[in-house]
Design a protein that fits this description.
Bound molecules: iron/sulfur cluster
Largest sheet: none
Shape: globular
Number of domains: 1
Mean pLDDT: 86
Amino acid sequence: MVHAFLEIESGGGRVSAETESARSVRDAARAYRELIGVLPEAANIDGDANFDRHVLASILSLASSEGGRLAAQAGLTEAELGDLFSRCFAARRIEPSGDGVESHVDADEIEIVRDLLLENRSSEGDCGRWLAAMIARRAMEPNHLWEDLGLRDRSELTRLIGRHFAPLARRNDKNMRWKRFIYRMMCENDGFVMCSTPVCSNCADYELCYGAETGTSRVAAAAQPSATTSRQTV
Ligand code: SF4
């Protein structure tokens, strides 16, 4: 089974810093402040509870800036989204602000990614379950996974995986790019085709899998102007 990830890796759909609108970033930052009370660059992520709220707010804020239905862009059902808001952001609500339309995504592929994450959960409660669905949906977008989750940098995604999906974190002992690593796991489990060779050291895609995951936050980018010069291919 060849999947959309190969198209993503070809670079055809990558959203660059140059083309991503400033308005989208501003809308996302505003939505984040609506949820958390401060701009993303000022977020306090000390402790698990603060960190989880930051991650959820980052995903929702970015998804809300893209247009379309917020639940769909975030990877949740309407019921799950309502539950998340009432339990994590009571009395706060954000609505889609962008002019865009919902992306066409492969529901089967999202389900496979989500199931892989659910099989590797290491936290109790609904947060990890929501995050599995949200990460799976956001993995369909063309940028680095941490960027399309609206996080501030890759280290936040590494912390997120380590906290909620610890078996995956342990298996990524070569520090592979996270989206590539998830699809590598899918290759092993479900017959997806990403690898052209069984051995990474012989592979022409080595840099795609193990290169640095630098880039610019899609939610906190306004506070990181110097980072815009360091974006690389997914
Ligand atoms: S570098 Fe390794 S994991 Fe990446 S595509 Fe090649 S064989 Fe697969």
